[in-house]
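Example (one chain per record):
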Amino acid sequence: MSNGDKGWEFHLRSLSSSARDSNLATDPAFDPSLLQSVKKLYELCKEEKNEDLVARVYPHINKLFQRSVASLSQSRTSNGLLLLAILQFFLDYGEVVLHDADPSLRTFYRLCLSREFADPVVAEATLDFLNSNKKKLLSSFPALLPQFFPLLLKLIAWNGDKLDKAFLKVFPALMSPASFLPLLSSLVDLPTLVVALEKVERSSGSLIGSSIASIQKSTAPEMLLALMDEAYTGSTIADGGADSESEESSTIDVADPLFLELLKDENDGLAERHWTSPGMAATLQAAINTPQSDRMKQILNMTPRLLDTYFAIALHDVNDSLICALIPLIMTRYSTLFPDKNFSYEVRKRLLEFMLAAFQRSPDFVALLKKPIMDRLGEGYDSPAKMELALQLCWAIGEHGGGGASHKDAARELFENLELLLYENLSSSRLGLMQEARGSDSQNYRKSSQSRLLCFVVTAIAKLATYHRELLPRARVSLGKVARSRISDVRVWKRARDYLGLMNEPAICLSVLGPSRPSRGVRQNPGTINWSEGGTKMVAHIPFYILGEQEGPPFHDFTFSDVIPRK
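Predicted structure:
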């Protein structure tokens, strides 16, 4: 018998004897030699490329897997590394022994990784396993990783920067049509997830070896009854921590629906009650008043990078219907973020950039989403964040002509909404912003915000009327009221006056205020002058900025021959 034959016989006997050992039968991972035997048998199968050897090894490894899974709830030893080694064997030789690895993989996530995601060794080994087998997992089990993305987010939220690079390699595999929308909410809520995990650790001890899913299962019947009561009687779910005040009463309670949503292991779609829990305000306030842990600081820095990857994939690979469905979610989440100043700035910046890029790629979205857009315009008074969102939406409405020439009805509705917003602000000397504007500079702050809003609205009205000329008479009336108003900032009524002047020169107005993209059948952008044709025909699009807003005769001393190239 060769040394190789003696080697695999020895390891097979090790696996067989472990099943007869009373201690190892109930906790196989207690013996570290079993992990080495599984790895050695896998290497021998890979070297020998012998299907008979694989068929002989498989029953022993499969039984070991079943025993390990059965012992998870009572085991005091980490089973993650052993199960990952067995799963590698199932993935590579499943076709040879007719073993479907999908149930085994799901069992690993639900019963093992849900208990051991906080173990840094198991977490790192899991990400290495996923990266090594990513191509095979995506081709054979495409729904697996998107289904368990919440569990993998818990893994990276708890283990932080040291696994950042490995997780970023796995991250694209988490995205699928089923996970695309809920994944965004989970990403922007990563800091809140850290708060919830740290709460569990403080109240229940180490997260390693304890199943957070048991909390969800134990409270599920009560939560179901509460939701049914809310549906039929209109009463709201009571705060689980209201009856038991403690030193941590300001943090999330384990029965809180938000708590359950944050700590789930599997993707079950969008959470309709997300960020509506009564305990959320207290939780965020407690997070602000408590010094940030290293884990929190790391996830605050990591989340924007994950969003960069998410949005890059979305623009490149995701279809328009999903992106269109994502934009209202972005509008909702824009003002509901973890209250860290730098984090909020970085996340909002990325949310806006993606939303505007989506409108640029598909201007039809402006018309299709007119209802949520108009709702957000009406909420601009509530907070500075909502005001900034409203300003950007005003810009998008005008820039993309309310959705384009084929969406005249939607453009008219958006125009009417802008008119209403304009008249409301003309009749008011200040905006009802939230309490952040308190103080000696509050009046100047409110005035500046109102002026900025009016400038955006005036510009959007002028652009819409330039694109949809049937709106020109109404636009002249609206802008005329602004131009005659002296209660507004001088910049506002001067801008309205300038736009009224431009409207008297249709060609120049189209060049300045027209859409940035060419219409169908027109190859040249409306706002672009083709100077190369100036020698043969009249060019109407002479840039009005040459005049530099100077009144009186033109100040320039050049001729058209100096501008138009000679042939």
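Caption: The chain has 28 helices and no strands.
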